[in-house]
Amino acid sequence: RSSDLLQMSSDLQTARALTVISIILTILGVMVAFFGADFTNCVENEEAKPKIALTAGIIIVVAGVLLIIPVSWSANTVIRNFYDPTNSIKMELGACIFIGWASAVLLVIAGALLCFCRPRPEGPGYSAQY
Prior knowledge:
Radius of gyration: 21 Å
Shape: elongated
Order of helices and strands: HHHH
Helix content: 55-70%
Largest sheet: none
Structural class: mainly alpha
Number of strands: 0
Number of helices: 4
Mean pLDDT: 85
Distance between the termini: 70 Å
Oligomer: single chain
Protein backbone atom coordinates (compact mmCIF):
# COMPACT_ATOMS: atom_id res chain seq x y z
CA ARG A 1 0.00 0.00 0.00
CA SER A 2 2.88 2.39 0.72
CA SER A 3 4.25 1.86 -2.78
CA ASP A 4 1.02 3.35 -4.18
CA LEU A 5 1.67 6.54 -2.22
CA LEU A 6 5.22 6.78 -3.53
CA GLN A 7 4.06 6.26 -7.11
CA MET A 8 1.83 9.32 -6.96
CA SER A 9 3.14 12.36 -8.77
CA SER A 10 4.71 15.08 -6.69
CA ASP A 11 1.90 17.54 -7.41
CA LEU A 12 -0.70 15.07 -6.10
CA GLN A 13 1.39 14.40 -2.99
CA THR A 14 1.66 18.15 -2.39
CA ALA A 15 -2.08 18.59 -2.99
CA ARG A 16 -2.84 15.84 -0.50
CA ALA A 17 -0.56 17.42 2.11
CA LEU A 18 -2.14 20.87 1.62
CA THR A 19 -5.62 19.39 1.90
CA VAL A 20 -4.77 17.58 5.13
CA ILE A 21 -3.22 20.77 6.57
CA SER A 22 -6.37 22.67 5.55
CA ILE A 23 -8.57 20.12 7.33
CA ILE A 24 -6.46 20.33 10.48
CA LEU A 25 -6.54 24.13 10.42
CA THR A 26 -10.31 24.11 9.90
CA ILE A 27 -10.82 21.88 12.94
CA LEU A 28 -8.47 24.09 14.97
CA GLY A 29 -10.25 27.26 13.80
CA VAL A 30 -13.69 25.88 14.70
CA MET A 31 -12.42 24.86 18.14
CA VAL A 32 -10.92 28.32 18.72
CA ALA A 33 -14.16 29.93 17.54
CA PHE A 34 -16.14 27.75 19.93
CA PHE A 35 -13.91 28.66 22.87
CA GLY A 36 -14.25 32.34 22.08
CA ALA A 37 -17.99 32.30 21.50
CA ASP A 38 -20.30 34.38 23.67
CA PHE A 39 -22.35 31.37 24.76
CA THR A 40 -19.40 29.50 26.31
CA ASN A 41 -17.65 30.03 29.61
CA CYS A 42 -14.31 28.63 28.45
CA VAL A 43 -12.79 32.11 28.51
CA GLU A 44 -13.78 34.19 31.52
CA ASN A 45 -12.33 37.45 30.17
CA GLU A 46 -15.06 39.01 28.03
CA GLU A 47 -12.63 41.51 26.48
CA ALA A 48 -10.54 38.67 25.04
CA LYS A 49 -13.44 37.00 23.22
CA PRO A 50 -13.41 39.36 20.18
CA LYS A 51 -9.67 38.75 19.80
CA ILE A 52 -10.24 35.01 19.97
CA ALA A 53 -12.96 35.31 17.29
CA LEU A 54 -10.53 37.30 15.11
CA THR A 55 -7.89 34.61 15.56
CA ALA A 56 -10.38 31.90 14.65
CA GLY A 57 -11.43 33.85 11.57
CA ILE A 58 -7.86 34.24 10.38
CA ILE A 59 -7.18 30.52 10.92
CA ILE A 60 -10.28 29.58 8.91
CA VAL A 61 -9.43 31.99 6.07
CA VAL A 62 -5.93 30.49 5.87
CA ALA A 63 -7.50 27.01 5.78
CA GLY A 64 -9.72 28.11 2.89
CA VAL A 65 -6.74 29.48 0.95
CA LEU A 66 -4.78 26.31 1.62
CA LEU A 67 -7.71 24.31 0.24
CA ILE A 68 -8.26 26.36 -2.90
CA ILE A 69 -4.61 26.00 -3.95
CA PRO A 70 -4.56 22.19 -4.46
CA VAL A 71 -8.08 22.12 -5.90
CA SER A 72 -7.24 24.75 -8.50
CA TRP A 73 -3.89 23.11 -9.14
CA SER A 74 -5.58 19.77 -9.85
CA ALA A 75 -8.17 21.44 -12.06
CA ASN A 76 -5.40 23.14 -14.02
CA THR A 77 -3.64 19.81 -14.52
CA VAL A 78 -6.85 18.16 -15.75
CA ILE A 79 -7.59 20.99 -18.17
CA ARG A 80 -4.03 21.07 -19.51
CA ASN A 81 -4.04 17.29 -20.04
CA PHE A 82 -7.45 17.47 -21.71
CA TYR A 83 -6.22 19.87 -24.38
CA ASP A 84 -2.86 18.15 -24.84
CA PRO A 85 -3.00 16.31 -28.19
CA THR A 86 -0.22 13.91 -27.18
CA ASN A 87 -2.13 12.70 -24.12
CA SER A 88 -4.38 9.76 -24.95
CA ILE A 89 -6.23 9.75 -21.59
CA LYS A 90 -8.82 12.52 -21.45
CA MET A 91 -10.14 13.41 -18.02
CA GLU A 92 -12.84 15.97 -17.26
CA LEU A 93 -13.50 18.08 -14.20
CA GLY A 94 -15.47 16.01 -11.73
CA ALA A 95 -17.67 16.73 -8.77
CA CYS A 96 -14.76 16.69 -6.33
CA ILE A 97 -13.22 19.76 -7.97
CA PHE A 98 -16.47 21.71 -7.67
CA ILE A 99 -17.02 20.53 -4.10
CA GLY A 100 -13.47 21.61 -3.26
CA TRP A 101 -14.00 25.07 -4.77
CA ALA A 102 -17.29 25.50 -2.93
CA SER A 103 -15.73 24.34 0.34
CA ALA A 104 -12.82 26.74 -0.03
CA VAL A 105 -15.12 29.67 -0.80
CA LEU A 106 -17.33 28.82 2.19
CA LEU A 107 -14.29 28.62 4.46
CA VAL A 108 -13.06 32.02 3.30
CA ILE A 109 -16.53 33.56 3.75
CA ALA A 110 -16.94 31.99 7.22
CA GLY A 111 -13.50 33.20 8.28
CA ALA A 112 -14.21 36.70 6.96
CA LEU A 113 -17.49 36.78 8.85
CA LEU A 114 -15.68 35.79 12.04
CA CYS A 115 -13.09 38.51 11.42
CA PHE A 116 -15.44 41.37 10.57
CA CYS A 117 -18.67 40.52 12.42
CA ARG A 118 -17.23 39.68 15.81
CA PRO A 119 -18.57 41.36 18.94
CA ARG A 120 -16.80 44.60 19.70
CA PRO A 121 -15.56 45.27 23.20
CA GLU A 122 -17.58 47.95 24.89
CA GLY A 123 -15.49 50.91 25.90
CA PRO A 124 -16.24 53.17 28.85
CA GLY A 125 -17.85 55.79 26.59
CA TYR A 126 -20.43 53.41 25.11
CA SER A 127 -22.30 52.24 28.17
CA ALA A 128 -25.90 53.34 28.07
CA GLN A 129 -27.68 54.14 31.28
CA TYR A 130 -31.44 54.36 31.33
